[in-house]
Specification:
By secondary structure, this protein is of the alpha/beta class. Helices cover about 40% and strands about 20% of the residues. It has 11 helices and 13 strands. The strands form 4 sheets. Strands 3-2-1-4-5-6-11 form a 7-stranded parallel sheet, with helices on both faces. Helix 1 links the parallel strand 1 and strand 2. Helix 1 packs parallel to helix 2, helix 5 runs parallel beside helix 6 and helix 9 packs across helix 11. The N and C termini lie far apart (about 55 Å). The structure holds nicotinamide-adenine-dinucleotide and UDP-4-deoxy-4-formamido-beta-L-arabinopyranose. The site of UDP-4-deoxy-4-formamido-beta-L-arabinopyranose has 18 residues, from helix 7 and strand 8.
């Protein structure tokens, strides 16, 4: 039977997770039909309630592992999406150093399986969640998409570099396939409604969840890792991108592929604000935005941190017509509102 491919249907792997759930909202708001596949290894099904409360639509949900070939075949047999946004991956840098095989197995098998079935079932567009981690300790800042990638400093980073290469080569060998890799800088914040946000399991590794948990009294004190970096105030510089702005970048990238506006079959875009912000500035910004005094101390540097990395966003601005819009203070307010909401605090 001839299959009709639906260009307005998108498969979102890892769609109950932090960035996936925000992207599902923006896709639905832009008129897309969203099918989510997630094995719930690092997320909660309740994020679908949040997506529904915000948009009035509940995405179709399939609980399955993207590495499971039988389950993925059933998925491709059942839904006629033309585009895939592939978020499903493990993402904890430190854990990837301790358990590399867990990361190589999950992050590589999932993208390989998705790509194989896209080719077999004639699906055209894939958007891949890459990361600024692929640049490592860059020689020149800000980084552009042409900045050479340094050898990965963690198995997690290596999975992102290898997945980008697999995507590039697979697209080159399949004339019907288009691919975009978005290299996210530091995604932070939550939907302003506080119906969806980040749900880190255990002790957070990332700065903003650690800050909000400290403000909520769950953690005693934030450690600022290092004040002796060669930066203006001695703490590290990063490019913190609001998660809703980041989610919108996915919608414009999908639209670029579905409307045939790609300049090449495989493209890469940085997704950041272009503004370097230090850890101390972020802490002060959180205090000011929310009228809170945060308990923090200076601690030794964290192994593996680079002093500074931020994006040159010219390509995304000009080619995707996308710009980061939210003010950092609004983003930091949204992070605190989300933390209070999930903890039942006033
Ligand atoms: P997340 O953990 O909240 O979301 C990932 C989702 O994928 C989770 O819901 C998890 O249950 C699911 N998943 C993992 N392996 C799966 C599998 N084999 N099959 C099905 N589902 C699976 O993480 P996130 O922050 O939303 O990140 C999404 C993507 O963006 C990841 O690929 C991550 O590496 C990448 N990324 C994240 C950041 C960040 O700081 N959050 C930065 C750069 C890139
Ligand atoms: C930010 C800054 C820390 C926690 C990571 C991944 C990267 C990408 C985004 C996935 C750093 C400092 C942190 C704390 C601190 N993820 N910090 N105290 O390390 O820039 O990037 O997430 O692709 O690959 O490596 O983000 O939020 O962990 O740290 O002082 O308790 O905050 O040293 O300078 P990072 P982060």
């Amino acid at each position: 039977m001839e299959r009709t491919i639906n260009s307005k249907m998108v498969l979102v792997t890892g769609g109950t997770g932090y960035i996936g759930s925000h992207t599902a909202v923006e896709l639905i708001n832009a008129g897309y039909e969203v099918v989510i596949v997630d094995n719930l290894s690092n997320s909660d099904i309740t994020s679908l309630d949040g997506v529904e409360r915000i948009t009035g639509h509940r995405p179709t949900f399939v609980e399955a592992d993207c590495c499971d070939r039988d389950a993925m075949r059933r998925l491709f047999e059942s839904y006629n999406f033309d585009s895939v946004i592939h978020f499903a991956a493990f993402k904890a840098v430190g854990e990837s150093v301790a358990e590399p095989m867990k990361y190589y197995r999950n992050n590589m098998l999932s993208i390989l399986t998705i790509l194989e079935f896209m080719c077999e079932y004639g699906r055209h567009n894939i958007l891949f969640s890459s990361s600024a981690t692929v640049y490592g300790d860059a020689d020149k800042l800000p980084v552009t998409e042409l900045t050479p990638r340094k050898p990965a400093t963690s198995p997690y980073g290596n999975t992102k570099q290898m997945a980008e290469d697999i995507l590039r080569d697979t697209v080159a060998a399949n004339s019907s396939l288009r691919g975009i890799a978005l290299r996210y800088f530091n995604p932070i914040g939550a939907h302003p409604s506080a119906h969806i946000g980040e749900l880190p399991r255990g002790v957070p590794n990332n700065l903003v969840p650690y800050i909000t948990q400290t403000a909520a009294g769950i953690r005693e004190c934030l450690s600022i890792f290092g004040d002796d970096y060669p930066t203006p105030d001695g703490s590290c510089l990063r490019d913190y991108i609001d998660v809703v702005d980041l989610a919108r970048a996915h919608v414009v990238a999908i639209e670029r592929m579905t409307s045939g506006r790609c300049k090449c079959p495989y493209e890469v875009f940085n997704v950041g604000t272009g503004n370097p912000v230090s850890v101390m500035e972020l802490v002060r910004g959180f205090e000011q935005a929310n009228g809170i005094k945060l308990n923090y101390k200076i601690a030794p540097r964290r192994a593996g941190d680079v002093a500074a990395v931020w994006a040159d966003t010219t390509l995304a601005n000009e080619e995707l017509g996308w710009h980061a819009e939210r003010e950092l203070s609004d983003t930091l307010r949204s992070a605190w509102l989300w933390e209070r909401t999930i903890r039942g605090l006033k």
